[in-house]
Here is the input.
Amino acid sequence: MQKITIAIDGFSSTGKSTVAKQLAKHLGYIYVDTGAMYRAVTLFTMQNGWIDNDQFDVASLVTNLDKVTINFKFNPELGFAEVYLNGANVEREIRTLEVSSYVSKVAAIPEVRYQLVKQQQLMGKDKGVVMDGRDIGTVVFPYAELKLFMTASADKRATRRFDELISRGDIVKYEDVLRNVQERDYIDSHREDSPLVKADDAIEIDNSDLTLEAQFQKILSLVNKTLEKLA
Here is the structure.
């Protein structure tokens, strides 16, 4: 059966990973959460004391990028692949608001993007992959058969992220989450290297008022139409 590459881009907390996991499971495709890869590098940077509210030692990070190994291992109990940084499961650690506050700054470093894009392109060289992030349809897979661009209002995205963090037991304020969403939007859209932009041939999905099931069915219909054209 014909397999395609599905590239999903968009702003933070638009549910890219959620729908990408749904699609990959339904289609039997490989799912790659590129945002988790950048979060893992951010965690590595934090662990080494190279970034905090007052400073960012970019030179030390770049010099030590060869010490970063990121893997995805499927967890059958959870039904999705968890992220491992240098052999350690960091799935929970990379989802904190603290990591979120630094990840866009780390992702803006050209050397970081170069290294991770190379890995991402290798992961998808045989097609049959669903990958989400910020520059998948523009940089990683510019020739993907289906490109989606996810968006939603900032307050809706902040509410979703806040509810997710609270359900995990994290102690956060909604105002801090909203500010983080807005700051990440600005940094992601204004960085010099691979800024977040909608690819010319991407289909925009505004899920501000869509249920998860309605969103999945809408996107699955687009997948099926794409496959039919290639048949």
Residues 154 and 181 are 7 Å apart (CA to CA). The radius of gyration is 17 Å. The first strand starts at residue 5 and ends at 10. The chain has a mean pLDDT of 93.
